[in-house]
Amino acid sequence: MSDAPASTDPATARRRRWPWALAAVALLLAFSYWATRPARVSTVVLSRVEAALGLEITAAGASEYRLRNEPTLVLRDVVVRQPGAETPLLRAERILLSLPWSTLRAAGAELVVRRVELDAPQLDLSAYQAWQATRPPAPPRLPTLTDGLAVSDGRIGGGSWSIDGVDIDVPSFHPDRAVAGKVSGRYRTARLAVPFTLQAALTRPARGAGLGLSGGIEVQADTWRLPMAATASGRLHEGDDGLGLDGLRYAADARYVGGEVDEAFALGIAGRLRYREGRLTLDPLGVAVDGHTLIPELDAGGRLSLDDALALQLEGTLARWPATWPALPEPLASSDSPLPIALRYRGAPDLSGDTGLQLERDGARFDGGFRLPEVLAWLQVRDTDTPLPPLRGRLEARRLEIAGAQMHGVVVEFEDEPSPADIQ
Length: 424
Prior knowledge:
This protein is an alpha+beta fold. It is built from six helices and 24 strands. This is AsmA domain-containing protein.
């Protein structure tokens, strides 16, 4: 007995096709609805993000929503703030979010994003920290970015300082894997600029993860600059004491360039870096300098802070007295004893203010100060001008030999040359 032939009745065939045709039409209508109503899409997306993060997010500019190839949402004139806060924690001219269809089908079960782009974002660190303090202690759920993250012309505001022209390129991002990318920008204060271009790598995107940086950095002031080929490492920190790095290690091949001076030296810095309430601190701070002629060989420890002004305290030891510095009298010049040094500075970040200085060796002690621009200018004309550096302070010594004469219980006062206003 043979099987019955399949029905070829046209009415039956139409009934079988009808549910699929209806579903296709409904899907097309839905796509058309969402594609022609980007404002509706952006409202739904932003409301979900607001609820998840406890933020208020608005997009005042014209939004776009595209379905070709994959869903892509573009938001313009975005403002993000903590509810009730006066200062937004983030502004952006444009944010692009591109999703694979699988993410939409998963309805949030998986956080996979193809790409995120931000144009001209402005992040306020103080507002960010205020919002972060309200967040639960559990680490946030981070998405996977298969085609990475791009930031162009960003700005990070830190009160008296900012980082402008921030460009970031991260080819891919996974919450449980190492992350690498490139970052560039320009750190600015009132009298200082520090452009940088760095390669960056994270062991994973989480608190306590290891961070590595390498590339070019240049400190620029009005009368001098300090280009450096640098590497740095540390562990990401975020806590009640602020954002920062634990176990910071910084090493650089540097050059000091100012006036007629152009000298290479090696620089090493170690410490704990923090940012909180508009202030950057390195405390404790360790510094090692290996210079040759003008720049000394120095090992010191202390602390540094930067807000409206730079504050620096260092105590350490000079390995030797540089040959280009003013010659010491005997018996100090030929002594092999350690030369303790202490520096105190608070003033403009370009080091143009008063620096306190203490030096001590074999019963001789200098306690005074100087201004770095004056000393650097003197070094270039000392052969034709005064042999004494522009120092202020007091030198006391049990014994000194000057021009073959021995003097005991010596006290020397160093004073500034009087200005025309002082003479009048």
